Amino acid sequence: QVQLVESGGGLVQPGGSLGLSCAASGRILFINTMGWYRQAPGKERELVAVITDGTNSYADSVKGRFTISRDNAKKTVYLQMNSLKPEDTAVYYCNAGGVILIGGGIARGPYWGQGTQVTVSS
Questions:
Q1: Is the dihedral of CA 56, 53, 71, 20 positive or negative?
Q2: pLDDT tens per residue, the chain (122 residues)?
Q3: Cα Rg for the chain, rounded, in angstroms?
Q4: In a 3-state reduction of DSSP, which class is residue 15?
Q5: Could you tell me the strand order of the sheet in which 76-81 lies?
Q6: How far apart are CA 89 and CA 82, in angstroms?
Q7: Among 27, 28, 7, which Cα is nearest to 78's?
Q8: CA-CA distance, 19 to 25, in Å (whole number)?
Q9: How far apart are the C-alpha atoms of 102 and 121, rounded to whole Å?
Q10: Residue closest to 6 by CA, chosen among 36, 45, 29, 28
Q11: How far is CA 36 from its chain centroid?
Q12: From CA 88, how far away is CA 17, in angstroms rounded?
């Protein structure tokens, strides 16, 4: 019912910037909550940022450096990452939940993208 495809990962030097995007497709009328998670090698997946229709929230480790935004018409969520640090290196996953479907009904999810690698290294 809902597919998420991330793009924009890559290699960047410490202090640099990178932008991620995640496009949702399917019989989607509206997505209540979209977010970004990340998983570093040997660590559990952790929340990075989440956005609803009116509010954003961030992990303490990324506050002031990362910005999450969304375009409801394009069913896309973005993550702008500035002042990147080596400890930001991880696979970043897009997440969606509370999807209102065309024709009625709610697909609660959560739904996950395939992940995109972000590597911060000199």
A1: positive
A2: 899 999 999 999 999 999 999 999 999 989 999 999 999 999 999 999 999 977 999 999 999 999 999 999 999 999 999 999 999 999 999 999 989 898 888 888 899 999 999 999 99
A3: 14
A4: coil
A5: 2-7, 18-26, 76-81, 66-71
A6: 13
A7: 7
A8: 20
A9: 43
A10: 36
A11: 3
A12: 11
> Which structure tokens are listed for 52?
């609803």
Contact by Cβ (8 Å): 56, 50: yes
Tokens 């559990």 sit on residue: 44
Tokens of 112: 């996950």
pLDDT at 104: 86
Inter-CA distances, 108 with 10, 17, 28, 81, 100, Å? 31, 33, 12, 28, 8
Burial 44-62 (b: 16+ CB within 10 A, else e): eeeebbbbeeeeeebeeeb
| Helices and strands per DSSP (H, E), number in the chain | 0, 12
Chain-centroid distance, C-alpha 12: 18
